[in-house]
């Protein structure tokens, strides 16, 4: 464990030291993100922080290759070098997008090509839990591997919308998965595990970058960083699954190891959920799946009333709950895990809705008070009117009839004229 902690410290230290230099380089070459309608920040901020994260990861892996306890992982096969080459390629693709804003189809094509290259280099899922343990064909293995890598890359890219959000979620997932892979590795003749090595280096990179990326961020990771994080955390799970041989172990012992196939989705549950919701939302409107909007989970948190730091911390809490809950279920009694999960979920739900409740409860009480006052005013009886006023405002039926009869009688002048006329005719 001390060796892995040392590797994490090397990755974090190298990332922390190199990131300020990367910031100056990004400003010099023009990799500064303009403020867009969907952005939360209001000041143009340099991006391309993924380059510093890549350097930190590569430095940690090179250190690890010289440590006797882990060096055998680099000589047994080429997986470690394939992972590093793929990391460099995916980071370069992200840097190109940070500089020139590539079309989403071109970027997706590049992700697919890099994923296929990594799968072709030996980083593959060789078995599938389809009722029983089934060895996948090479073509199917490459397809599943490429799909998982591309999905994770874009999931992290979608959730990268607030300072520190993506790096924190990936770090939490990396810790959960690193503990899981380390526990599994302890049952093997050698404690050395490539999956654990990638995870601890990834966690160190995220922590080192977070020191510069906490709100207000001095530098954004950009697509070069978000795609790199999604790529690395998926590679760690695939490396673990790729080391397993379905024919060598009994099914009852082997089944828990298939958790790495699902664990990237669970440790990245929030990014994956956000990505799926965004795709469905945009397709339902007839838009491209990559069409930007302000309806992501972090945008909704801000709309509820959270500050940037508050929204990030609560989303970290949800990510930790799902990630560690999915891991602990393999090592603890299910009922205790479920009880703890429900209690934590209830607390997080209250914290998530607290700003909304603080604003809405006084409004609801005020609306209820106004309604009650209006309702009471409608039921108050009007004061009785006097007889004179009543006769003026609403004459009774006899008075109205007398007025009508008087209107039919001739006036005295009309009577005199009628009498004179009659005498003249006679």
Automatic annotation (TrEMBL):
Residues binding Mg(2+): 157, 223
GO cellular component entries: plasma membrane
InterPro entries associated with the record: Glycosyl_transferase_4
GO-annotated biological processes: cell wall macromolecule biosynthetic process; cell wall organization; lipopolysaccharide biosynthetic process
Entry's localization field: Cell membrane
Region (Disordered): 376-426
Cofactors (names): Mg(2+)
Keywords: Cell membrane, Magnesium, Membrane, Metal-binding, Transferase, Transmembrane, Transmembrane helix
GO MF assignments: metal ion binding; phosphotransferase activity, for other substituted phosphate groups
Record membrane topology: Multi-pass membrane protein
Membrane spanning residue stretches: 6-30, 51-74, 80-100, 112-134, 140-158, 165-185, 191-214, 226-244, 256-280, 310-332, 338-357
Compositionally biased intervals (Basic and acidic residues): 389-404
PANTHER family noted in UniProt: PHOSPHO-N-ACETYLMURAMOYL-PENTAPEPTIDE-TRANSFERASE (PTHR22926), UNDECAPRENYL-PHOSPHATE ALPHA-N-ACETYLGLUCOSAMINYL 1-PHOSPHATE TRANSFERASE (PTHR22926:SF3)
Protein name as annotated: UDP-N-acetylmuramyl pentapeptide phosphotransferase
Organism annotation: Bifidobacterium apri
């Amino acid at each position: 464990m001390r060796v892995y902690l040392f590797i994490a410290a090397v990755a974090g230290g190298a990332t922390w030291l190199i990131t300020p230099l990367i910031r100056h380089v990004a400003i010099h070459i023009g990799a500064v993100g303009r403020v867009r309608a969907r952005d939360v920040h209001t000041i143009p901020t340099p991006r391309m922080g993924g380059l510093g994260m890549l350097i930190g990861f590569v430095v940690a892996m090179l250190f690890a290759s010289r440590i006797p306890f882990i060096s055998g992982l680099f000589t047994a096969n080429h997986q470690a070098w394939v992972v590093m080459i793929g990391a460099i390629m995916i980071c370069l693709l992200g840097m190109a997008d940070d500089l020139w804003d590539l079309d989403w189809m071109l970027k997706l094509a590049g992700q697919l090509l890099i994923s296929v290259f990594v799968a072709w280099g030996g980083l593959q899922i060789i078995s599938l839990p389809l009722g029983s343990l089934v060895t996948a064909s090479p073509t199917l293995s490459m397809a599943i591997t490429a799909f998982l890598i591309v999905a994770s890359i874009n999931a992290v890219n979608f959730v990268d919308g607030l300072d520190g959000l993506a790096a924190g979620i990936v770090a939490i997932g990396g810790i959960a998965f690193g503990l899981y892979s380390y526990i599994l590795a302890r049952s093997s003749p050698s404690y050395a595990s490539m999956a654990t090595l990638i995870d601890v280096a990834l966690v160190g990179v995220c922590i080192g970058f977070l020191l510069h990326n906490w709100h207000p961020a001095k530098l954004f990771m950009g697509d070069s960083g978000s795609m790199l994080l999604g790529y690395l955390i998926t590679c760690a799970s695939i490396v673990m699954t790729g080391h397993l041989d379905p024919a060598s172990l009994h099914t009852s012992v082997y089944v828990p190891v298939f958790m790495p196939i699902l664990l990237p989705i669970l440790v990245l549950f929030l990014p994956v959920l956000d990505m799926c919701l965004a795709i469905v939302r945009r397709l339902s409107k007839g838009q491209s799946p990559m069409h930007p909007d302000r309806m992501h989970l972090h945008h909704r948190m801000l709309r509820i009333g959270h500050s940037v730091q508050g929204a990030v911390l609560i989303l970290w809490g949800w990510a930790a709950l799902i990630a560690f809950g999915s891991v602990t279920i393999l090592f603890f009694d299910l009922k205790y895990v479920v009880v703890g999960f429900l209690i934590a979920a209830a607390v997080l739900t209250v914290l998530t809705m607290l700003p909304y409740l603080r604003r809405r409860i006084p409004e609801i009480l005020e609306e209820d008070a106004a309604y009650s006052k209006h309702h009471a005013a409608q039921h108050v009886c009007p004061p009785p009117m006097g007889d004179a006023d009543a006769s003026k405002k609403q004459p009774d039926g006899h008075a109205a009839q007398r007025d009508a009869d008087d209107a039919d009688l001739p006036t005295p002048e009309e009577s005199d004229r009628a009498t004179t006329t009659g005498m003249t005719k006679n």
